[in-house]
Predict the structure.
Amino acid sequence: MKRIVLITGSSRGIGAETARVLAARGDHVVVNYREKRKRAETIAAEIRAAGGSASTAGADIADPGSATALIDSVVSEFGRLDVLILNASGGLERDAAPDYAMALNRDAQAHLTRTALPHLPRGGRLVFVTSHQAHFSPTRPVPTGYEPIAASKRAGEDALRAMVPEFDSRGITFTVVSGDMIDDTIIVRLLERRDPDAVTARRDQGALPTIEDFATAIADATIAPAPDNHTVYVGGQDFPLLTPAP
């Protein structure tokens, strides 16, 4: 039986590549998008053309009603939800409201998780996708302009970690996948404009992980046992591999 995997923010980049990896492994992936319907449909069509199984679902997860409807629609269509990958994030957009980063990167993650929990079976999986710049932000400098994203992503991670006892009681595995700056992503391109020295400093430490590297790690987190402290690291070996206290 194919697992049903919902990946938020998967109409492009890391989320889209994660969908491709999981579909190639035999899962049915639900490609979530906020506005880019055609792009999401193109990705789903490419997956199906390659022999995989995929569908699309539009929702603005920062809107609680839309997020709830997203979960309801997936469960209604497929009868269950086996894996939820929390990949969507934002806040660097030029027109973003001051509170948008926290609303999306913390509040929406917690709401979507709580909405999905009753539908995840024992053995279900939750994966939260973040960056080293956010994960280590309590103890490491943050690139200029990325501070609101780092703070809100770390707050979202902390909110989910507070739910670990409930996840454990339900038999659900929770994993945080944290990556160094990922080469050829929108975030890195934006940071190269705002704080090019920060990006150069990361490149000086070695080659940045690729989108394919990171997507594969996210996909692996949906099947591997939860690691120590529920955290998988991708790249950035110069970062101390000790998670700041949750």
